[in-house]
């Protein structure tokens, strides 16, 4: 049961993920959740730190794609200034959105990583799709009302997961002993 929610890696923040390390692992496409992973859920404009990270991904020839459960209208508006491709209505924790992105970009599961801030949606969808996953801490501590429900249950899953896998801790660096 816990395997469904166990991330491959845990990193403090999305922007701490080193694109060079991703490239070394053969990653061609980074799928990312939108709210509280790529941008703060209540601030759709992003930061300069995000833009720097996006440029670093481009230098490594890694495609960044937003995979969100939000409506097409909401995601399109949120990523317009960033000019990012997206998959809306991804239906996470189901693997539908991730599989759609893999078909669209013609990549195998080992060439993709899913980045998200929620075990019960993002990580579960990644594991269900057979792709590696990176759990990040939310950008801001506040959440939309519907996410607060997930966070309540996530607390119990995280506790059980850490008990079973004490090596799983949020880290600043991407590459470590577990990754090699």
UniProtKB/TrEMBL annotation:
CDD domains listed in its UniProt record: HAD_BsYqeG-like
InterPro entries per record: HAD-like_sf (IPR036412), HAD-SF_hydro_IIIA (IPR006549), HAD_sf (IPR023214), PGPP1/Gep4 (IPR010021)
Lineage: superkingdom: Bacteria
GO MF: phosphatidylglycerophosphatase activity
CC terms in the record's Gene Ontology section: cytoplasm
SUPFAM superfamilies: HAD-like
Protein name: YqeG family HAD IIIA-type phosphatase
Organism the protein comes from: Secundilactobacillus folii
